[in-house]
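FAQ: What does the model actually see?

It sees only this:
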Amino acid sequence: MILRRLAGLIRHDNWFTIMLELIVVVVGLFLAFQLDRWYESQRN
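And it is asked to produce this:
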């Protein structure tokens, strides 16, 4: 489903939406890694 939606956005050249979704994913991954690092430091 996500790939189909992304393919549709690329087909319609909706680059703003593509970049916005990419930024959301990158920020989410960054926050997840920071939370994991914080949790590991609290555990030790």
